[in-house]
Amino acid sequence: MLNGFLEESMLKRATDMGKVRFGTVNPRDFTNDARRTTDDRPYGGGPGMVMIPGPLFGAVESVADEQARVILMSPSGKRFEQCDAQRLSQERHLVFVCGHYEGIDERVRDALVAEELSIGDYVLTNGTLPAAVIIDCVVRLLPGVLGGEGAAQEESFQKGLLEYPHYTRPVEFRGMRVPEVLTGGHHKQIAEWRLEQAERRTMERRPDLAAKAGLPRPPKEEKRKRRTRKTRTETNMDHHPAPSGIPPEEGI
């Protein structure tokens, strides 16, 4: 399932640049029976099948070295966010364990797994697609992979905000025009417009992110008044006379 995905687009470019190397391992190659069994019924009963520990131990131990960080894709894991992608992009070796069926034997978690990650509050057939999502997100942060300097920093979530709107040629299409500020060539105004749009989009679509970013921000006039009040207070403190009978250095 992953081979085609790993050999296309940005991931192929990263491989060709020598920024990353990919490999896949099949737990069935580490079974000991003719049927290449990787699952069995759960102790205590219940629906579904559970992946047995032997093949998973064999698969992980065949590729994991001392620098490897083993990650289990699981709906019960921590929800994956951009900050996790940034953190994982600093690792030298990542090993993703993609569970199937009802789950995996808990002893795999206990002995091999450094952390569990989930890409959302929903259940998929297995962990392969979530692993692909994380791989794509992490690799694009590696220096030089995206090409343009700073390209990754301008994307959604990198600064805690959703990304601002983008436009390209033509200036007008079916009566819809590119905002005039983007065609004027004034870089400061463009930066201010993009920040305003990013903040507005974040407040409208992701109030949880907006709250973390301290949005909505106070109006500029209110911020100016606050700075003025703070400056006046500091000035008054600086010139406040020491109480009678107390040396100046001990007065305040």
Overall mean pLDDT? 88
Whole-angstrom Rg: 27 Å
Low-confidence stretches: 244-252
Number of domain modules: 2
Strand content: 5-15%
**SS summary, helix count:** 11
Overall outline: elongated
Structural class: alpha/beta
Helix content: 40-55%
Explain what this protein looks like in three dimensions:
Strand 7 and strand 8 (176-177) form a beta hairpin. The strands form three sheets. A three-stranded mixed beta sheet has the order 1-2-5. It has a three-stranded parallel beta sheet with strand order 4-3-6, sandwiched between helices. By secondary structure, it is of the alpha/beta class. The radius of gyration is 27 Å and the shape is elongated. It has two domains: 3-139, SPOUT methyltransferase, trefoil knot domain (Alpha/beta knot); 156-237, Trp Operon Repressor, Chain A. It has eleven helices and eight strands. Mean pLDDT is 88; it is low at 244-252.
